[in-house]
Amino acid sequence: MEDLSLRHATREPAGGTEAIAIVGVVASGNLEVLVERVLTDRECLVEIRTTAHGFDDVWTAVVADFVERYSPGGLKFSINDGGARPDTVSLRLAQAVRLMERAR
Amino acid sequence: MATWQLEREARDRRIRAGSAVARGKMVEAGDATRLLEAILRPGDRVCLEGDNQKQADLLSAALLAVDPAKVNNLHMVQSGVVLPEHLDLFERGVAKKLDYAYSGPQSARIATMLFGGKIELGAVHTYLELFARYFIDLTPNVALIAAVSADRDGNLYTGPNTEDTPTVVEATAFKDGIVVAQVNAIVDQVPRVDIPADRVHFVIATERPFFVEPLFTRDPAAITEGQILTAMLAIKGIYAPYGVERLNHGIGFSTAAIELLLPTFGEKLGLKGKIANRFALNPHPALIPAIESGWVTQIHSFGSEVGMEDYIRARSDIYFTGSDGSLRSNRALCQTAGLYACDMFIGSTLQIDLQGNSSTVTTSRIAGFGGAPNMGADARGRRHPSKAWLTAGQEAVAGGNALLRRGRKLVVQIGETFGENNVPLFVENLDALELAEKLKLDLAPVMIYGDDVTHIVTEEGIANLLLCRSSDEREQAIRGIAGYTDVGRRRDPKQVARLRERGVIRRPEDLGIDPLDADRNMLAARSIKDLVRWSGGLYVPPSQFRNW
């Protein structure tokens, strides 16, 4: 197991009012993302627990692109990764943001 | 006095020798090895029919059992090296030299044996290329083929998996060679004559049917969201704008996803009747929903697919069938159709380099070429126009006199930036180069050359290589859709942004596609059982694809 924590400042807060959401599954080649609206409007935290070692710079790049594209201010993402590919990670993060955008 | 019929005389001597163990043309299975010892001579060129799917397995076992003192140093000229026996022949010294096209399941062992000097390699070919050489410089002295049934005269019924047989027999029988057929049964009357009796010299009935593998069945349950996204990009970004009506699909999951998105996503885009209606393609079960929804007009096939027999029989408007109602396939003719009469090839690969060269070779495996290079190549002899062909030609060479401009075949590589086990699709150097150096080959085994590739599709978008005007642009276009692979992360962001402005790179959002819409619910069938349902129970999947 390897743990990574990536903190970013965002341009704006995430949309919607949903407080918590979960997407994906913990399985080989997949990942589970728990997202909570627990931070201030202009910050975002992504915490990763992964079975795959040595991919720090890929995670850093994927998360930086994600934050740039979706500006998920106020959201904390907890990722439980089963060795998912970067494109799957991007997709799950985007799906998580979409779930948070739902009206309550 | 000059003698001009030495070969015919030699053939007749072989037939007489073989007749000693036969009754007429009929030989008992137990006498197969004796027959081969009687008709074969050391150094003969032998085609031991190993097609993509069907295998002359009894004859390979019989050949392996010959006395190497009598039969040795054979030169094997066969399209598929598939069974372990095909290589055991070289270990025993029965065979020495090999010319072939495809070695899927034996790809690791063939590499080891080549490296160890156990096999003298002629060349690795594409199917059409090897078939062509059967008529010029690799004509078999003896062909050992497989058929479903024979009548007592030796007329053969090859059934749905006719595949290579007519080509092999044509080259052998009409050039004084000997044709030996293994058949599953001797019958009073064959359902249809695929090979006339006067081209067949000996027939052996086997106790169990020849081996056929379901190579083209892709379980929709295994299709990922990433593959669905690439499929959506291909349909909207390539099939639609070029108006691709006539095409060949590879056998990967991305193209299976395309087949399953036609009746859903394609229908929504209003593309029915405008794209993907005529195919050079094996009977892929994944195409059943599109056929049932009225998308497909006609399909010609290289071979058949296990479980599709009844469906094909009931859909003869779509497939080529014989007087008996079952599929008639023909690999050589379907390859020709794919080369000359299709406007697009789209398929997956294992590695793509910075100029778009692709290869399915890894350092320890030589899988051969099969048919992909014929499908995935521009046919320089083509002269008939079509919208897709002319549009691609115009993009490749802007300006000049339109009446003198060649069209271009669309050759599309589709895949996810990371394949199985997180292995990147994009590489700086193909493993094929290392292999060629290790084995001292004259050519690195490149499946599709970069200059034939027109588009590469990944979940990051489409790179249109037709629009690239320099090798530098090409490299950045490829890096630009290579995502988080090392190749992708070494892109020049400014140049990639400029290529995107010019439409050389198109991202999902440029095509109005939201990656979040790539959902498995969009597939017309999400399981093998769904395919059975679509077929009205006519598709009968093999047991390994059933979980009910």
TrEMBL record, chain A:
From the record, what ranges are coiled-coil? Answer: none
Under Pfam families, the record lists: ACP
Keyword Cytoplasm included in the entry's annotation: yes
Q: Which residues form the signal peptide?
A: none
| Locations listed in the record | Cytoplasm
- Residues annotated with O-(phosphoribosyl dephospho-coenzyme A)serine modification: S28
The UniProt PTM text for this protein says:
Covalently binds the prosthetic group of malonate decarboxylase.
Question: Where does it mainly reside?
Answer: cytoplasm
Keywords carried by this UniProt record: Cytoplasm, Phosphoprotein
Identify the GO cellular component terms for this protein.
cytoplasm
Q: What is this protein called?
A: Malonate decarboxylase acyl carrier protein
UniProtKB/TrEMBL annotation, chain B:
Question: Do you know which Pfam families this protein is assigned to?
Answer: Mal_decarbox_Al
* Superkingdom classification of source: Bacteria
Q: Which Gene3D superfamilies match?
A: Glutaconate Coenzyme A-transferase
Show the PANTHER family listed in the entry.
Answer: ACETATE COA-TRANSFERASE YDIF (PTHR43293), MALONATE DECARBOXYLASE ALPHA SUBUNIT (PTHR43293:SF2)
Give the source lineage, highest ranks first. Answer: Bacteria, Pseudomonadati, Pseudomonadota, Alphaproteobacteria, Hyphomicrobiales
User: What is the protein's given name?
Assistant: Malonate decarboxylase alpha subunit
The GO molecular function terms of this record are: transferase activity
NCBIfam families recorded for this chain?
mdcA
